[in-house]
Amino acid sequence: MTKQLVVLDTWNVAPKHVLRAFLYMGLHRRPMRKVAGLGFWKLLGTGSGRTFTMRDANPRQWAVLTVWANRTDYESFTNSKMFKAWKSIATDSAHAELEPLSTKGTWAGRTPFVPHEVTRWSGPTAALTRARIKPRWWISFWRSVPPVSIDLHNTPGLLATLGIGEAPVGLQGTFSIWQNTDAITQFASRQAPHQAVVARTHQTGWYAEELFARFKVLAISGSLDGVDLSQVSVDE
Predict the structure, then answer these.
(1) Residue 94 belongs to domain with CATH number
(2) Total domain count for the chain?
(3) pLDDT tens, 93-122?
(4) How far are the Cα atoms of 3, 10, 37 from residue 163, in angstroms, in the given order?
(5) pTM for the complete prediction?
(6) Contact 128/174 with Cβ under 8 angstroms?
(7) Is residue 236 part of a domain?
(8) In angstroms, how far is the first alpha carbon of the chain from the final one?
(9) Fewer beta carbons within 10 angstroms: which end of the chain, N or C?
(10) 151 in any annotated domain
(11) Contact indicator for 75, 66 with CB cutoff of 8 Å
(12) Rounded to an integer, what is the distance from CA 97 to the centroid of its chain?
């Protein structure tokens, strides 16, 4: 089995191009289904991820998550009209190339990330969480988010974080970059606010679907969450 290449590309757009970005989110869905070598993809809106409500949404920043069997197909994608259309309206961007380390759960009924082998990794690590929240639990879920978000942003080892979503409400997630896997483990398994939410998740069944994944950071560039990613060393 070949190693997957998972890529997150984000673009910040000028205010005058916000409407065009909205249109791209709809118009590009059909051609994305026909891209050669593309195993999984999601066009995503972004936000701060601090409340997971409409208040977080950033209409000036957009993202596409793609999963590839080889780099050649991704490089061909970057020469496509779709990719160039986003670049043409972007004021700045970020680019992260990732390899799956571990994954649990599904996204739209699929298992998009497949780790190649079990390996130890001590270099920069990315984490992606995604959930489809049951409508009757939206308010309860939103009330639980702020303490976790505050704790997340104060956790040592966090380099950058971004809220992501396929819709303004109900389909939400986070993408974060950490100095190493130990920093993620510290937040995920030892921080009290996060543990409280995990416990409530099991008790209430907030999610109709959920996914958690970790990745090696293979290459990274641009700016995300106000952080210059070119300063992040990707050596293990």
Answers:
(1) 3.30.70.100
(2) 1
(3) 999 999 999 999 999 999 999 998 767 788
(4) 26, 12, 27
(5) 0.85
(6) yes
(7) no
(8) 23
(9) N
(10) yes
(11) no
(12) 12
